[in-house]
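tool=predict chain=A
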Amino acid sequence: MATRPAWTITDNKVVSSDFEFTWNGGFSVVQKQKNVSALHEAIRNKYNEYALEVSSKSTEELGKKLSAFSLKCGNVPLENVFQSSKKYQNGGPYEDLLEVKPSEAKRDERHRTSGNLTAFVYSGETWPLQPATAFYDYLYITSLINSYGKELDLSKYYWFTDIEFNPNKSINCQAKSTAIYKLIQQMDKFDVLESQKSWISFHEKYVV
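tool=predict ok
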């Protein structure tokens, strides 16, 4: 058995719940899609609501399109922008990571050898580490809007998952970011993305 989180909107807040399901071992796309199906079945059994897998392993084209590895900030892959924005105690931000493959940017050894993460630097502006995931969520949602606009139809999906996300190893999750996008859309609050201050204030209030 395995347990993975999924995100939804409750009382105008983005929240997560954990679901237990039978895990299918293996690294192939087929095996991972079996896990997606099992996770979504667990959600339907409990809430009778549909979920969207937001990753390259999604069985739906929309979920694949919303993968962080498919989105871009301007002309640069989102993953590269995020990784190149990291500032550490002993180095960074490493802007040369904008020029490599997204997978290489994520695995660059300097992320492990430069000390603790202290902030993010993006477009000349320094972002704090708290609220947790606020900077990543900002990058993801602005990239999503740049690619698909503010009218993306997510109405049939009440839950969002990312089968690759392991909360014991990471905090940022594209499924969570997608749920936040849906909340902003429902509340018609896209203006909160206009400044770091307004975004952080929104995140503190509406993202659990």
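The radius of gyration is 17 Å. The beta strands are 2-10, 13-21, 51-53, 72-73, 76-77, 86-88, 117-122, 125-127, 159-161.
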